Amino acid sequence: MKSLSALSLLGFLVLLVGLAGVPLFGQGQQPASQDPAAQSQPSTSPQSAQNQASQIFVGKIAKSNGDLVFKDAAGTSYKLDNTDQAKPFVGKSVKVTGTLDAPTNTIHVTNIEGPSS
Question: What distance in Å separates the CA atoms of residue 84 and residue 61, rounded to the nearest whole number?
Answer without folding.
Answer: 12
